[in-house]
Amino acid sequence: MNIVVLVKYVPDATADRQFEDDFTVDRVNVDGLLSELDEYAVEQSLQIKEKREGEEITVTALTVGPQAAEAAVRKALQMGADKGVHVVDDAIAGSDSIATSLVLAKAIEKLGPVDLVVGGLASTDAGMSVVPAMLAERLGLPQVTLASVVETQGDQIRIKRDGDVATEVIGGTLPLVLSVTDQSGEARYPSFKGIMAAKKKPLETWSLSDLGVDAGQVGLGAAYTAVEETAARPPRTAGEIVTDEDGSGAKALAEFLASKKFI
Question: What is residue 32's three-state secondary structure?
Fold first, then answer.
């Protein structure tokens, strides 16, 4: 069985983030890491492999991004993935989810027959949750998405999807596209042994030409949306302190909340 898990290199949410002159997110001059939500996808891919002991299963971590995005693949390899693929090309910068799904689909096709494509709930920088569905359409595969529980048996996959008012149980037959939520199981930490072993695992680098993708199909110029303006978050202002020295604090607090229409 061949499993491809999608991993994305995103700006660290705890660090300062900024935009380029063309209003795209700066992904080069910032601290980045493997998207936390994609770690759950890696974890579920590895669990599927471990539970099907005796079968020949290969887990390939796939990413699209700048040179630094290799770190996302390295993290997946340290966690236990068998090999990695990094698609990097200057023309990809500024791509929207539609172009990204195209590049990912072509990379998956180049990897050969794939039984399962696994992605996270969303990326922590964009949060759109649409790439798995777009991939399923491009690859002509069924999709079972937003899984909080994943079970496999033979060529069957069954998931539990938790909605606002109900829980659904959905099944599918391989090959298919699967996405998982952060409720699917805590992602493992790379062990020292895993970190050392990852250094010897294969990691291929592909360009758009390797995939047969024209540069005009990707990048900011091909994007269906564009950011026209950005503004820095205004500095935090000092709060208002309500004292209760004479017993009037409760009234003053109620009046303040009412003025803000909180009550």
Answer: strand
Q: How far is CA 7 from CA 151, 153, 171, 214, 231, in A?
A: 21, 25, 24, 23, 29
Q: If you average pLDDT over every residue of the chain, what do you get?
A: 92
Helix (H) or strand (E) holding 106: helix 97-110
For range 69-97, the mean pLDDT: 96
CA atoms within 13 A on the CB side of 232: 6
Q: Give the Cα separation of 47 and 151 in Å (integer).
A: 10
In what order do the strands lie in the sheet containing 156-162? 149-153, 156-162, 167-173
7: pLDDT confidence band, cut at 50, 70 and 90?
very high
Inter-residue contact 209 to 110 (CB < 8 Å): no
Calculate the CA 166 to chain-centre distance: 25
Q: Measuring CA to CA, which residue among 60, 155, 160 is closest to residue 110?
A: 60
